[in-house]
Amino acid sequence: MVELIEYLIPRESPPHPAPTPGAGYLPEVWLLGSSTYSAQLAAHLGLPFSFAYHFAPALLDEAVGLYHDTFRPSRFLESPYLMVAASVICAPDELEAQWLAGSNALNLIQRAQGRPGPLPSPDEAAAYTMSASETAFVRDALATHAIGAPEMVTQKLRTLASRTGAQELMISTRVHSLDARVRSFSLLAEEWGSSSPEKKQPELDSRLSSSTL
After folding, report:
1. Sign of torsion, CA 55 57 61 62?
2. Distance between CA 160 and CA 61 in Å, rounded?
3. Within 10 A of 190 (CB to CB), how many other CB atoms are there?
4. Under the phi-then-psi rule, with left for phi > 0, alpha for psi from -120 to 50, and beta for the rest, what region is 85?
5. Could you read off the pLDDT of 36-88 as tens digits, one per residue?
6. Centroid of chain to Cα 162
7. For 122-151, what is each residue's pLDDT tens digit?
8. What is the pLDDT of residue 22?
9. Beta-carbon count within 10 A of 212 CB
10. What is the Cα–Cα distance from 71 to 99, expressed in whole angstroms?
11. pTM of the entire structure?
12. Which residues contact 202 (CB under 8 A, 6 or more apart)?
């Protein structure tokens, strides 16, 4: 990372061979991580940090604490700037949101059994009978996800932002239907804007990623 930054920062005498485009074309650099090491590295280099809470929830508090406590100002950033990625499924009501989340639940079981693949449909998930151990596994895995109606999801995300001091939230939504995913983003964005308190709230950044990711 350091070598890449050094390669692209503006300089009077670019390295040889000069990249094209290269020197002077350094984009905004973020460090995305899911460990305490990545948090420390971002702090040491004075870079904005995005933590993958959506798949490493157990390390959130430790990583965020290390980032804030050990941050060193740099040419890029004077103070810590944090983004937290969260798993969200937002639907008009709780029942539909949980139905949509069934796809992710079954996919988690499949991956744990060494059978990764595309997300199954909600109907496939509803037809699958989970064992007691699978039910407990899914419950623990989805405990940190925000799944429900817009008001509940928004409140859970505001609590997460307050807990971490995040300036931005990245929203990851794993559902079988692209239409349901877009609707989830839209419902959340509408509720987030209409219920925004006077205090400045984090920005929301959604990613229309492949359902297999």
Report:
1. negative
2. 11
3. 13
4. beta
5. 999 999 999 999 999 999 989 999 999 999 999 999 999 889 999 999 999 99
6. 16
7. 999 999 999 999 999 999 999 999 999 999
8. 64
9. 10
10. 42
11. 0.83
12. 161, 166, 167, 168, 169
SS3 37: helix
For the chain, the farthest-separated pair of C-alpha atoms sits apart, in whole angstroms, at 65
- For residues 164 and 83, give the distance between their C-alpha atoms in angstroms, rounded to a whole number: 9
E strands within 23-63?
Answer: 31-33, 49-51
Close Cβ partners of 53 (under 8 Å, ≥ 6 residues apart): 60, 84, 85, 86, 144, 160
Cα 97–Cα 174–Cα 140 angle in degrees, nearest 5: 70
Say how far apart CA 184 and CA 174 lie, in whole Å. Answer: 10
The secondary element (H helix, E strand) that includes residue 116 is none
The single residue listed with the structure tokens 């300089």 is 11
The encoded tokens of residue 164 equal 């971490």
More confident residue, 92 or 20: 92
Please give the backbone phi and psi of residue 28, each rounded to the nearest 5 degrees, phi first. -65, 125
Residue pair 87/174 in contact by the 8 Å Cβ criterion:
yes
Residue owning tokens 């199954």: 120
Tens-place pLDDT, residues 98-125: 999 999 999 999 999 999 889 999 999 9
Give the CA radius of gyration of the chain: 20
**How many Å apart are CA 150 and CA 94, to the nearest integer?**
9
